[in-house]
Each structure stands twice: as C-alpha cells, then as structure tokens.
Amino acid sequence: MIPGFLVYFLVGSLLIDVHGVPVEVVVDNPANLVCKEENESNEQVLWYKTKPEKLLSTSLNVLGPYKNRMHVKSPYPGEWVLVIKRVEVTDAGGYICKVSGSVMAEIDLVVQTPPTIHQTNDMTFNEGDTGIVWCNATGFPTPNIRWYSKPPHQEDGIGHYTGAEGNKLVLHNITRYYDNIYGCEATNAAGNVFAETRIHVNFGPEVDILGENVTAVIGEEVTLHCVIAAYPMDGVGEWAFQNRSEPIEYSWKYNVVPDPELKTDFNTLIVSLTIRFGALGNQDYGQYVCRTKNFSRGYSDKVVVIQSN
Ligand SMILES: *[C@@H]1O[C@H](CO)[C@@H](O)[C@H](O)[C@H]1NC(C)=O
Ligand SMILES: *[C@@H]1O[C@H](CO)[C@@H](O)[C@H](O)[C@H]1NC(C)=O
Ligand SMILES: *[C@@H]1O[C@H](CO)[C@@H](O)[C@H](O)[C@H]1NC(C)=O
Ligand SMILES: *[C@@H]1O[C@H](CO)[C@@H](O)[C@H](O)[C@H]1NC(C)=O
Ligand SMILES: *[C@@H]1O[C@H](CO)[C@@H](O)[C@H](O)[C@H]1NC(C)=O
Ligand SMILES: *[C@@H]1O[C@H](CO)[C@@H](O)[C@H](O)[C@H]1NC(C)=O
Prior knowledge:
With 309 residues, the chain is mostly beta strands. The protein is built from two helices and 24 strands. This is Ig-like domain-containing protein.
C-alpha cells in the first residue's frame, strides 16, 4: 500500500509539473515565498517568475509592474520573503530566487480556487426516460461532486445522499416519483458550494374520487372530493351532474372549491363539491362526474353516485 499523502503528492506532481517546493494558496489570499541564502552575502537577492523568466524584485525592491501586488521583506538575516498580497489565478507557476547566479529557492505556487457550479435549470422528463442531470463545476483542484435528493416540499436541508458522485447524475427508467429536488455539492480544498435542480416528470392527468358512493337522504349535506394528479397541471377540474356539458357552478345550492395548495409540491389538485344543507332533492340523485378540462396532456374522469336508501 502506498500511503495516501504520497499518492496525492505523486499525482499532484504529475498534474502540475512540480520541480520546486509546492506552496498552495487559495485565490485572493496572501502567499509568502521564502528564500534562504546559504551564506549571508552582500549580493542582491533576485526573485523571478519562470516560464517565461521575468525578474520580479531585487533585494527589497519590487519592479514597477508588480509593485502594487507584491513586496519583499527580510524578517531575518539571510531570509528574503516574496509576499503576494492577494494571489490571482495567473500567479500560479514557478518562482525562483537567485543570489550571484545560484538558485537558492525554487517554488511552485499552486493557486486553489473554490468550486463554482454552472447552474442548471429545472428539467422535465417523460415516464420511462433515462435522464441526465449535470452539475458542472469549475475550481482547482478539480471539485468532487456528490448528489443529494429531497422532496419538493422540503425547504430546509440538502436532503439525503443518493450515493452518486461526479458531474453527471443518471436517472434510469424515470417515473413520476422522480419529481424531486436534486442537489449537488461540489467540494475541493478551497471550499464547497451547493446547487439545486427540480426534476419534473410528465404524467396524467388522472382523476380519482376520495371515498365511496354516497347514500344520502333528502336535504342532507353531501360533500364529494376529487383528486386530480398531473404534470403539467395546466388545466382545471370540474364536477358535472350526469356528465352534462355544463359543469356545476358555485351557487346557493352548491359549493365548489378547487384547492391548489398541493399543486406545486405534489402535482395534485383537489376539487370538492358540497351540496349544501337542505338543497338535496329527488332530482339530485344520480351520477356526479369529476372531469378534467383543458389539460394539454389529455382527459380523465371518474364517477361517484349519490343514491337514496
Ligand atoms: C557558503 O559558504 C560555504 C563555506 O564558506 C561555502 O563552502 C559555500 O560554497 C558557500 N555557498 C554559496 C552558495 O556561496
Ligand atoms: C456539462 O459538461 C459535460 C461534459 O463533461 C457536457 O457534455 C454537458 O453538456 C455540460 N452540461 C451543462 C448543462 O453545461
Ligand atoms: C422500467 O419500468 C418498467 C415499468 O415499471 C418496468 O417494466 C421495467 O422493467 C423497468 N426497466 C428497468 C431497466 O428498470
Ligand atoms: C358506485 O355506483 C356505481 C353505479 O351503481 C357502480 O358502478 C360503482 O361501482 C360504484 N362505485 C363504488 C366505488 O362503489
Ligand atoms: C363524459 O363526457 C365526456 C365528453 O362527452 C366523455 O368523453 C366521457 O367519456 C364522459 N364520461 C362519463 C363517465 O360518462
Ligand atoms: C379552456 O380552453 C378553451 C379553448 O382553448 C378556452 O376558451 C377556455 O377559457 C379554457 N377554460 C379554462 C377554464 O381555462
């Protein structure tokens, strides 16, 4: 077994072509690059950036173009520290310090950047599809990505870990129950960030009656509940007596209440019909049809019967 830190070091070396001592700094933070003279001489200490080689400083003097961002300090005799006040991504690379032509220090500055996720919008699939959700993140080192999921009505928390990792979440054989909020968390040594995507799945409309056929006496108040499940929820639900073309309207006799509360989070619309106390007459026994109207994906209905004893 190769110890983990060694693997990290070897892989890191291959990736960033390290010759010198690696110094890792998170972008926008200060970097201190240390040069120790073997012998305290009166010679000038020169800092260079490599590839291409550019002179940055001589002893305590930083050259013009770098003056605002860098300075050199000598806290101890023979020690010369090049300080970059706020490291930029383009500062990454090799630095060398020379005295009388001899290299005293060779440093590879590694600039880490925290992850950024390129936000993906809500996505819609059909049942049976295989769906791919992306979480493309930039940052250095390359961020690790983990996927979480939670139901649409859950506002707090990141949900439960799905076990999936990487920038691609593949959903096989999608069903309506895949309508969830999928969260991805991108993490690297410089930080972490989280983003969410809602998945919608086209289905329905499907109509269901809550409860059984009703037996009622004249004048009794009766309430019928109808549940419409669909995505998209782009139509309405209505009740019709004996499936007449004219739907039942709100009146002294009927109370019709569409309840959209569960629409967004549960793709469900409940439409309740109440025949008010005292209003049920002989002519009102029969079939009540709950039906959909104007849904882009089709039509559905169900019947419930109000019968006398
Ligand atoms: C430093 O001093 C030692 C002993 O005087 C000498 O051997 C060595 O070459 C010197 N090193 C440099 C880089 O001048
Ligand atoms: C994410 O990156 C992959 C390549 O790794 C690319 O195919 C895909 O289109 C990207 N997705 C988005 C939403 O940017
Ligand atoms: C996909 O779902 C259908 C219907 O539930 C099922 O018959 C089929 O075996 C599933 N296929 C896979 C690959 O899971
Ligand atoms: C309601 O009554 C109708 C007609 O009598 C019948 O066809 C249907 O099966 C009944 N439904 C239930 C849920 O009992
Ligand atoms: C109700 O009427 C619609 C439109 O005429 C028809 O498509 C549907 O099958 C009818 N439903 C019932 C339960 O009679
Ligand atoms: C249903 O659609 C028709 C024609 O497209 C339109 O005139 C009507 O206003 C719609 N009804 C509802 C309740 O949205």
